[in-house]
Amino acid sequence: MKNRDRFEILSLILHIANGYNNVTVTKIMNRALLSYNQMKEHLMFLTEKDLLRYDEENHAFKTTDKGMRFLQIYDRMEDMIKIWPQLQRAR
Q1: Confidence band for 51, pLDDT divided at 50, 70 and 90
Q2: Max CA separation in the chain (angstroms)
Q3: C-beta of residue 13 within 8 angstroms of C-beta of residue 52
């Protein structure tokens, strides 16, 4: 497995919290392949920045509207980076 940068991990967590119902800490850890300490650090950052919210009633995480905007921008940038080598070769 390749090393992932922080933004890639944050994006993955937001995608997980958006794509599944009742996303618990354990589900995020397992799907994102993170240790407990890594997961705790990233969840704290995402909730502090209002990109992710914790639903006390369901004990689950959900991506906020702000988090969805982050994902849209991140995904567009990732797509642009992927096609960059193709554009360079076409010159």
Answers
A1: very high
A2: 56
A3: yes
